Amino acid sequence: MTESAPAAFFHKIVSRGDAAKAMARLAQPVVFTNGVFDVLHRGHVTYLAQAREQGASLVVAINTDASARRLGKGPERPLNREADRAAMLAALESVSLVTFFDEDTPVRLLAELRPQVYVKGGDYDMERLEETRLVRGWGGRSMAIAFVDGYSTTAFVARIRDATG
């Protein structure tokens, strides 16, 4: 059996060092969001599609495995490694580019990339985020997108534990 060539969507995954150059080639305006995106579900893909509707391109920055572990979601999280999470996101039509950040927040990456729009899920108070102040500082906008009720990776993992426990 021969190994096939990587799927076409893998070109959307770039290192942090290459992210600014790759983003400059995207259709403008660029929307930026970030998160762990550990177990991709309907809530995630709906959120990402709605985020993309806010601009011409969508950049998704994912927490590295080390950064995700520091978020306190549990010692076994993330369930999927960063390369696997990046591949699942890159395969989505709504996603234009995927990159990584190792810090606890994407503030430094945002400052490097300077997108026109920053979005987060509806559970965030955008006015309290340093990211919002940063993006507005160069004339960008920041907004929250409502969650699809009933979808949460944490709740999904808990249901699996209950079913197998």
Walk me through this protein's architecture:
The mean pLDDT is 90. The protein has 165 residues and is an alpha/beta fold. The chain is built from seven helices and five strands, in the order αβαβααβαβαβα. The protein has a single domain, classed as Rossmann fold (3-Layer(aba) Sandwich), CATH 3.40.50.620. The termini are far apart.
| Uncertain ranges | none
**Fraction of residues in β-strands:** 15-25%
What structural class results from the helix and strand content?
alpha/beta
CATH class: Alpha Beta
> Can you count the helices?
7
Assign the CATH topology: Rossmann fold
Report, as a whole number of angstroms, the end-to-end distance: 39 Å
Strand order of the largest sheet: 3-2-1-4-5
Biggest sheet record: 5 strands, parallel
Name the average pLDDT.
Answer: 90
Helices, strands, pairings?
Blueprint: H1 16-24, E1 30-35, H2 42-52, E2 57-63, H3 65-69, H4 82-90, E3 97-101, H5 107-113, E4 117-121, H6 130-137, E5 141-145, H7 153-164
Parallel strand pairs: 1-2, 1-4, 2-3, 4-5
